[in-house]
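Board notes (copied after class):
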Amino acid sequence: MSVNTPSKFFPVKISNNILVYKNICLNSNKKSIINHSDKLFIENKSGSVSLILFNGEKLSSNIQKGILTKISRDLIQMTPFQCSIIVGLILSDGWIQYRKTWNPRIGFKQSIKNFEYFWYVFIQLSTLCSGYPWLVSNMKRGKLFYALEFNTRQLKCFNEIYTLFFSDYKIKVIKPELYDYLDYVAIAHWIMGDGAKRNKGITLCTDCFSYKEVVLLMNILKIKYNINSTIHKEKYKPRIYISNKELLKILPYIKPYFTKNFLYKISL
């Protein structure tokens, strides 16, 4: 796609050094910034498409674009690292979409202000995706908010994650089998997504789980990592609180997986 003259565009600031645009425009380097159904791309003279930092740095990914045969899709596997990230996402802000006769797919959305974390997750999971993230917006209390979202392909390998987290009634639950999956990577993403700093410790927002399931999560943390935690109620919902003393036990192991914008959550 190419254009000869600039057209109207609307800049949306993502962070201090990143800027993306909606609609079509032409920048000073003669690169067309294009929009397909609110998906954000930049197309240069050679025809390649990528997201680009405001300072010119390229944001690379490993997307396998195009339609794949069922055999090809079924051959795609998660790496152990990707599996751990997804477990952390499902415990926090991620979701699984599942339809009868279709394989599951993973979805993830974050506010524009959390772009650094969102993009890190997307890059790590991009081999499981067929396209770029897209921009979404919604009105809340009379104010317009922007967020970014992406979905993975519908893949057979995600049945493992779906079985781990969902009951026969398609309700998200915590099962004892999570013990084998809750490693340092998963905990890091769980905290980045649903952790809130409180009294130098961390509160994990487990509102969607029952008291029994929250106790099971606490037992996994105790047995596997010797972390003592307590239940705090928030609007009659159970949340896990980990003090700074207990957080220190795993801090050196989870910190390497944190993006800079979320390091404040584990700063003591």
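Comment from the instructor: DSSP finds eight helices and 15 strands in the chain. Residues 9 and 23 are 5 Å apart (CA to CA).
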